[in-house]
């Protein structure tokens, strides 16, 4: 335990001066070792987690299955179509909507509206930024091209989302824009961006060529393309009860339909024409067997999926807990 107070007397003093970068960044962030750190201490690493979307870039050839290659609809349209806007700081969930109608939007970071921050950390001027260059030369220690394209892409998405003053008010109500930005300032910013090449497709991350993406389709793409059947892209289920609900609901509907068909077949067998038909007799026998075995097989599959997912989660939890304990012990040395 440190033999002193956890913060200084000046920490809560509003008159204390901060460096220019700190107010533009979050208060804290989590690194790859799941430890909380100060974002300003390693801005490049923070920006990689805050702006890059590698998972979406990996499945970019298949994104047309999850959305259309057009800019997103404005916020007023999303509200008019009963979409529930949710502020979500995860960049890989930006403009992703669920079947429930909820759409995730990452609030526009303050640092993307700061000219000096762009000049210091985002604008790419090295050899890696030359058109046609696929990767940084060995002499370049770090290339900010991907960060620059990620920042341009996020700005591009908000140019499309906030087109009218009503969109601006919706964005302010959902805390999607910085509080110090007014409508006139936003107009000037958008006009400035549209006059330059900042919004050209070659300058933005390819993910932003597409607008809203459907989460259920992304899960299917990941399940097929990367064989992540149990994980998908981002499942919204958080309990095993939700898993059973999702799988048993369609099974219940199918069982009701099977019951209706069996009832109709029973009525058909009571008629003279169908009762004497060998084809109908065979179909009735086959469907009766299916009605008995089908739901039972379906329930067993659901239990099997639950068992595999439970075992997988248990193994991953144990492994993570062991590795995390080692990291904590090392940090105490």
From TrEMBL:
<protein>
    <submittedName>
        <fullName>Uncharacterized protein</fullName>
    </submittedName>
</protein>
<dbReference type="Pfam" id="PF20246">
    <property type="entry name" value="DUF6601"/>
</dbReference>
<dbReference type="InterPro" id="IPR046536">
    <property type="entry name" value="DUF6601"/>
</dbReference>
<keyword id="KW-0812">Transmembrane</keyword>
<feature type="transmembrane region" description="Helical">
    <location>
        <begin position="283"/>
        <end position="308"/>
    </location>
</feature>
<feature type="compositionally biased region" description="Polar residues">
    <location>
        <begin position="1"/>
        <end position="15"/>
    </location>
</feature>
<keyword id="KW-1133">Transmembrane helix</keyword>
<keyword id="KW-0472">Membrane</keyword>
<feature type="transmembrane region" description="Helical">
    <location>
        <begin position="247"/>
        <end position="271"/>
    </location>
</feature>
<feature type="region of interest" description="Disordered">
    <location>
        <begin position="1"/>
        <end position="20"/>
    </location>
</feature>
